[in-house]
Amino acid sequence: MVFSLFFLGLADAAEPTEYWSPELSELGAEALIAGEFDGAAGLDVIASYREGDAFGLAVLLSGSGETWTLTPEIPISALKLRVAQWDADAEEEVLLGMPEHSSAGHEVGAVWVLDFSGVTTAPTTLESLQTFSVLGDEQDSAFGTDVQAVDCNTNSGPELLVSAPNARNGGKVVAIASSGDPVALAQWSPSRKQGVFGVALGSLSTEQGPLLAVASCASSTGNCNGDGELYVLPISNCESTEFVEESDALTGSLSARPKHLIELFEGSASEHPAILWSAAGVKSVLALGSGAQLATVSTQNDQGAFVQSSDEVVQNWMSSSGSVWQVSGALGSALGADPSHIVHQVDGVDLGLNLAFAGDVDADGCGDVLASASDGEHLYLLSGCASEKPDTGDTGDTGSPDTGDTSDTGNPDTGDTSKPDTGDSNSPDTGEEPCQESFGWTCATASPVFGWNGLALLSIVFFWTSRRRQTE
Ligand SMILES: [Ca+2]
Ligand SMILES: [Ca+2]
Ligand SMILES: [Ca+2]
Ligand SMILES: [Ca+2]
After folding, report:
1. Which ligand has an atom closest to residue 115 CA?
2. Which residue(s) pair with 285 in the sheet?
3. Cα–Cα distance for residue pair 306/219, rounded to 1 Å
4. Are the beta carbons of 144 and 99 closer than 8 angstroms?
5. Do 412 and 426 contact (CB within 8 A), yes or no?
6. Cβ pair 172, 188 in contact under 8 A
7. What is the 3-state secondary structure (H, E, C) of 323-367?
8. 91 C-alpha to center of ligand 2: Å?
9. Which uninterrupted H or E stretch holds 435?
10. Ligand 3: centre distance to CA 112 (Å)
11. Of the ligands numbered here, which is closest to the C-alpha atom of 88?
12. Which ligand is nearest to the CA of 85?
């Protein structure tokens, strides 16, 4: 295996703005989604919040403009939120997985489909938004750990694909019919009858039809410490029970339990299609065709949040060391050479516990992202357009602060990295320390000066590995 390691070079700093401050505890710390849910033009946002031992959903629909707090009759102790197209109307529906949900005293797990179409007044209960629900069939199986809606059967409408990684004999994924009774049409489980199958799910649309990506840990710890496997299941016809062989895994030996499996935009990697195994601490780019691990991005102190937007080029958004990094272009060898990274940060706050793509909310031509943060009180809006550009033209006028201006011509401000200048003009910034001094890391490999905060902490490691399979 050949790998090279270098750090991101110059980056621009961007100041997020407070987008939603509903005075709830731990807003968006567990889950955060955004989309068009109510049918009234404008972004709708749903975030978890905490009330004592339980979670609720904080809802901000553009049609009402008010914050609603919704809790079900049985308190939620664990949840997953996904956005899906469930019914025929144009609005998106919300999938709520509750893997610890109890029914009749048994913790069987549940998934609800919530429909906010046309909802303009505060619902009295979360249940009143329910358009479909299904309970797990086995105690302590963690049914609802992850969920996707994919049309995988000839009957009308999509099916609900639900994982129950703690189910007997190594976990399972089931396809639930959307019409009629919520019965299981199909089931996938590991033939070795051990491990944790279905810790995360992702849906992929390919020329060969819909595919379901399933993350599994071979051991039953659920941590995927070097034994994580990615399965890609054809689901154009899901109507039977299938046992998945270890040798069917697209790739194995992956680290860290993923929070998301994401179908990457074209242009995100050297091969397409590609899937991102997005876990806390590690983001692995996996080629769907060859199974090769194309690139690995290591992050620090994050929860595995990752989203993409697409402007002129793909924008990758991920959290590391309390900041959200916006990295343009392919997650591959060109990454470190491209200086147009933007770091979004808020003083004193860990930003980016969860991320949600928000569309172009501020109408400046670039896709934007919502981020929850450790202060727990606000959702922040991260603008996809760089609010500050590198100083490429300082003329020496000493009176004006150098805050990312590009109108001056003259001396480039070569020390400028991730912080607005504080007033100097014809000399390099001195307010920013090279990473060598800040972190004790060597700075020799990339650009001359590094930013002061966290640049070295988002290190990019490329693994040029061939496809790895477990074949025993
Ligand atoms: Ca809306
Ligand atoms: Ca719909
Ligand atoms: Ca609907
Ligand atoms: Ca924008």
Report:
1. 3
2. 276, 295
3. 26
4. yes
5. no
6. yes
7. EEEEEECCCCCCHHHCCCEEEECECCECEEEEEEEEECCCCCCCC
8. 4
9. helix 435-439
10. 13
11. 2
12. 2
The two tokens of residue 99 are 């893997």
**What is the residue whose two structure tokens read 């209960």?**
125
pLDDT tens digits in sequence order for the chain, 472 residues long: 222 223 455 567 889 999 999 999 999 999 999 999 999 999 999 999 999 999 999 999 999 999 999 999 999 999 999 999 999 999 999 999 999 999 999 999 999 999 999 999 999 999 999 999 999 999 999 999 999 999 987 777 899 999 999 999 999 999 998 877 888 999 999 999 999 999 999 999 988 889 999 999 999 999 999 999 999 999 877 889 999 999 999 999 999 999 999 999 999 999 999 999 999 999 999 999 999 999 998 889 999 999 999 988 899 999 998 999 998 888 876 555 566 788 999 999 999 999 999 999 989 999 999 999 999 999 999 999 864 444 444 434 443 344 443 333 333 444 343 334 444 334 344 333 322 222 222 222 222 233 333 333 344 443 333 333 333 3
Give whole-number Cα distances, 190 to 237, 406, 444, in Å: 19, 58, 47
The label of the residue with tokens 């749903």 reads 46
